[in-house]
Amino acid sequence: xxxxGYCKFCNEVINTNVQGNEIGNHECNAYLIGCEESQAIxxxxxxxxxxxxxxxxxxxSGGHHEWHLQMDIFEAIELTNWKFIGLHPVCTKMTLSGNRxxxxxxxxxxxxI
Length: 113
Ligand SMILES: [Zn+2]
Description:
The protein is an alpha/beta fold and 113 residues long. The chain has helices at residues 40-47, 73-77, 99-102, and strands spanning 3-6, 13-16, 31-34, 52-56, 68-70, 84-87.
């Protein structure tokens, strides 16, 4: 049995289970920006009228807790059928320029994601 509720990200009517969790896969009109505790991108998108949410393991420093999902990005991705997902993890240890320090067979290689 399904019920109707509202998507907590875009406020569209959705089908839910008895606990209020979305069932089905509506085309959500919300954007997810991952690895974004500063909310800089999220705020810029909202200024342009886009329904954007930030996500990070850390609390947000942008001051908009109502738009922030403090959780693992892989869990956030599963919350709805996002219209767009943008991820920009801290790349210090991931870029080619860091190979001298973090490359294969280097002492700090295990610090790479
Ligand atoms: Zn939605």
